[in-house]
Amino acid sequence: MRLRIIILALLAAFAMSENVCYALTPQQKRQKAKEVQMKKREAAKRKAEKKRAAKLKAAKKKRIKEGKPLLYVYSYNQKTGDLLPATHVTVQEQNARPNKKPKINKPTDNKRSRVSRGLPNGSYWAAAAKTGYFASDTVRFMHREDEDTVKLYLYPETRLTFTVTDSLTSRPVAANVIVRNHEQKRIMQTTSDTLHTVLAVLLDDRIPYYTVEATAVDYFPFRDTITDPSLFRGVVMSPREVKSFLLHNIYFATGKTRILETSEAALNELYQYLRTRPNQRIRIVGHTDDIGSDRSNQALSEGRCREVRREMERRGINVGRIEIEGRGERDPIVPNNSEEHRQMNRRVEIVLL
């Protein structure tokens, strides 16, 4: 009897010790509850995704049955190939009357950079626009698939800011400024003043070059070509009472004295200046960079000056009014340590006598 009581007591103690071992701490209970909650959420998410997929599948079947397949329109950055969010997309039937409301006229999704809608089979056009980008080309397409995709490409604008200043005092100048593209189409015309010194124009770096023209009272006309906006130094106007000025946009064949056809505007400006001042005498001074020997550069600068004088003579200017001087590489305005600086040192200067 006593042995039985001892055995029962041992069994009871063992059972109690097992319960103690398997009891959870509060932290473990919270962790277990969190895991259970997470599993419930994942299950609910899977259920919602399954329901959404079924809904989309049913909607697709309905669109196909009704003859309205789904159209996706994506917008891309043409320069980088990245998707563009918040791009306003317009889709319209090709033969729609002018006042008809577009089939799609809304911005792309901020996350997926697209718009989508079920449209009837037919011929459409699509275009996109976004601030800071040039409008996309109009894309024409036939919409006859179960799901159709159209891609639109927008090219980013380059914003060029510059000033109009006096070459002697660096103060702002009130001038009429015109910017043209390579086809001589005017893209900006404005007037600077002495208070609002910074002008801005939007450029398309796919266009090979732009020209900037400026005129102001008591200043020589300014004209320059922009091939790289980062190198454009702004509009610098030379007062008419100055003793010398640079002849901008005069171009020669590499290593030769032959004047290129692209210099016609600069030559015409010099001719007009001399024609309207019949008593003004000038000296044409030629400068080169440091590539080549001193002797060859000296001969090159003199030959180019002679070519400019010959062009003035051909236009009817008395060559007795024009002197020439070749300075070769002796008078650089900046060190010849880069191609950009060498280009600045290759110049033609007009000295008033």
Can you tell me about this structure?
The protein is an alpha+beta fold and 353 residues long. It folds into 3 domains: 90 residues, Immunoglobulins (Immunoglobulin-like, Sandwich), CATH 2.60.40.10; 85 residues, Carboxypeptidase-like, regulatory domain (Immunoglobulin-like, Sandwich); 111 residues, 60s Ribosomal Protein L30, Chain: A, CATH 3.30.1330. 29% of the residues lie in helices and 31% in strands. A 4-stranded mixed beta sheet has the order 4-1-8-6. A 4-stranded antiparallel beta sheet has the order 3-2-5-7, with no helix packed on it. The chain has a 4-stranded antiparallel beta sheet with strand order 11-10-13-14, with no helix packed on it. Strand 10 and strand 11 form a beta hairpin. The longest helix has 41 residues. The radius of gyration is 38 Å and the shape is elongated. The chain starts with a helix and ends with a strand. The model has no long low-confidence stretch (mean pLDDT 80).
